[in-house]
Amino acid sequence: MSSLANATDTCLSTISLAKLIRADPEIDKELLAACVKVGFFYLDCNDYESNRIVKEVEGLFQATRKTYDLPQDAKDDWIVDKDHGEDLPVCGYKRSGVSNGSVVGKKDGFEGIMVFEHALKTASKEERLAAPGPLAEQRELLSASIHDFHTVGLAILSSLSRALGLPDGQGFEHFHRLDEKCTTALGLLKYRKYTPTDEQVGHIAHTDAGSLSFVFSNIGGLQVLMPGSEQWSFIAPRHGCAIVNVGDSLQFLAGGCLRSSLHRVVPHADQEREEKYTVVYLMRPESDAMLKDPQGNEWRSVDWCNKKFAVFRADLAEMKLGSFLTGREGYTGMVTPKEIAVEMAQVM
Questions:
Q1: How many helices (H) and strands (E) does the chain have?
Q2: How many domains in the chain?
Q3: Is residue 1 part of a domain?
Q4: Cα–Cα distance between 333 and 103 in angstroms, integer?
């Protein structure tokens, strides 16, 4: 298999958020088909409540850029490298280059800030938000955005529950109640501009630990391994649309009928000209929700997330042990620098 077999943008289903919120039966069918077949789809937010979510995402991009313009030592004050336990902070930061990246012999190429939903909701409103300055100043935007993403996530989970005919009270949404403790987070990421000599590149192939991920990016680079074809394909960002994907937790809750697809971030031709920014909402079940993996092992939701994060932090040899990272035994989905150069030349 060529590691970068298809450098063109793949076609995904597009789901209207406005119709989804109205519980349109046809949308229920389309959404289920997308989550069974590929596990990825576009969610068109342009037609929802006067573009409210689109405007919130634009505000988040602005706050993200300002935050990453801070001096490195100011960002380092917020470094968090621990399990997602009961004492999650409002905000945590990781440097670029602390884990393995998507290219053989290179480290990851992104900085990351996570704003944790439950910690944000329970933080004292009488005190300044415990976050870097540009984010602390945007508490209202962060709270509104996370609330809206959670609402949309519940609508997706309810739609899938209806389409699968789950009994009342047993739908996926009941594992994601708004006020329960969880590791759900809003991620604000910055990927470095790409040069062939850079030792920090991309994001290693993986499936997501949680239930649903909502991704907004300014340029391309996200790839999905298309089911049944062994082809890696770029997913192009679209203005006003989230790229949504199913994660492990939802696949487990659904007994394996929904697909948690393998994906990664590799350099795109656009990344030679500008930095890549990503806003991602990572919706995860309540911390105490029980999950059963394909091998029949039972996990608390928080324990599954922590196992996944431990693999991300591990060295390459440990990453290859088992299937926790990618769902495939010993597989990392890495590419070589030569393959990157060839494929980037083809899409320019």
A1: 11, 15
A2: 1
A3: no
A4: 9
